[in-house]
Specification:
By secondary structure, this protein is α/β, with parallel strands linked by helices. The chain contains nine helices and nine strands. The protein folds into two domains: 129 residues, no CATH class; 158 residues, no CATH class. A hairpin with a 2-residue loop joins β7 and β8. α1 packs antiparallel against α2. The protein starts with a helix and ends with a strand.
Length: 294
């Protein structure tokens, strides 16, 4: 049964991607000997749009955690030697990360379950001043200019104050990490794999893709045991959660099917190449967090 699902999901995406590469080939063949910047960018834009349509086609077939997991296992490579155009699409789970902005709600009330979890993570890495770092995060997210502790209203080295409100992206988050490291002379903060643990949009988290460090904290703090096999967890019953543990999952917004891809699209045309990364929510069919590297 699983093999059949793998084949169906794989064929749908490969056919969709192959179709757009072949369509692109008819446009690009005449440019084989002279791929200028304008031609490259025009072709990249066309291929990107066609690729998003292919992902949208795929999203229509993914309606459970098993199909979502299988789609993540398929790196898709399509080449067209005639036009010298190739694409690679890699899919990663994005929904195993916690939105750090949900440390505070709209009333500036702390999400205690998430606060305790991040604090435990800091303790596991023996961070020198966990309270100061947590205060930096909270004072960055809130919209007032009152310091929770001395120096916790973050400023850049040039004196520019970080915009209060939600932390917009990983670049802004890294600035907070660097500021803490400098203020407390604590390089251990950089050892935490933040890029695999935090995000900045969305609220729901998929238990199946939570980082092992976080699952260890859930076990350490709340006695929630991680299954030893590779089977997907599909319900509270699979984890034998009691009422208190269910309430922790509710507070952290942990569920078992949150289909959000992190997509890495590599495009090569002639001797030029580029990468674009973005998130794709299969339920809303919306793209967010686009970053391009030319």
């Amino acid at each position: 049964m699983k093999k059949g699902i793998v084949m169906i999901v794989t064929l749908i995406l490969i056919m969709s991607l192959s179709m757009f590469v072949l369509k692109s080939a008819s446009l690009t063949e005449k440019y084989l000997n002279d791929v200028g910047d304008s031609v490259f960018y025009a072709q990249f834009n066309r291929s990107f749009l066609d690729m998003t349509r292919a992902i949208e086609d795929l999203s229509k077939t993914i309606d459970n955690s098993e199909k979502f997991s299988l789609a993540l296992k398929i790196p898709l490579i399509v080449n067209d030697k005639k036009s010298n155009l190739s694409t690679i699409l890699r899919l990663y789970p994005q929904s195993g990360k916690f939105n750090i902005n949900t440390l505070l709600d709209t009333n500036n009330t702390i999400n205690q379950a998430l606060y305790d979890m991040v604090f435990s993570l800091l303790s596991d890495y023996q961070i020198n001043d966990s309270l100061f770092f947590m205060s930096l995060l909270l004072d960055s997210i809130d919209i007032d200019d009152e310091e929770r502790v001395f120096g916790s209203e973050f400023t850049y080295d040039n004196g520019t104050i970080l915009k209060d409100g939600k932390i917009e992206n990983f670049k802004a988050f890294e600035q907070i990490v660097k500021y803490y490291s400098k203020q407390r002379d604590d390089s251990k903060i950089h050892k935490i794999p933040w890029n695999k643990i935090v995000r900045f949009q969305g609220e729901k988290i998929d238990y199946n893709y939570i980082h092992p460090n976080i699952k260890a904290i859930l076990e350490q703090n709340y006695g929630i045991n991680t299954p030893q096999d590779d089977e997907l967890v599909k319900s509270h019953e699979d984890l034998n959660l009691d009422e208190e543990q269910k309430n922790i999952f509710k507070a952290l917004k942990i569920e078992y099917f949150v289909p959000i891809f992190s997509c890495d699209f590599e495009f090569r045309f002639g001797k030029k190449s580029t990468n674009i990364t973005f998130d794709y929510n299969l339920q809303t069919r919306r793209i967010s967090n686009i970053e391009t590297i030319f």
